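Session log. Operator J.P. requested a structure for one protein chain; no other inputs attached. Running the standard single-chain path with C-alpha cell output.
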Amino acid sequence: MAGSSHGHTPAAWTGVIIAFIGFCVAGAFMVMAQPVGFWAGMVIVLLGGVVGAAMRTMGLGQHKRTRTAPHGGHVTSREPAGAEG
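Structure written below.
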C-alpha cells in the first residue's frame, strides 16, 4: 500500500476526524455513566461515515482506477495496475 494514495483524500480525513470525535464523546460519557451522551457520541461516529461517503460522492474521494483487461475491455479495480499476482 505504500505506493498508493489509499485514504489520503479530504473525504477520508474528514470522515475519520468526525468519527474520532464521536469516539471521544462516547468514551467520556461512558466513563461518566451517562447513556444518553454515549449514544449521542455513537451517532456522531455514524455521522462521520455518512459525511465521508457524501464527500466521496461529490468527488472529494479517491477515484477508482481502470485498466485494460486481456480481452480488450476495461476492468475497474482498487488495486494499482501491475499489482495482480
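Operator note: The first strand starts at residue 65 and ends at 68.
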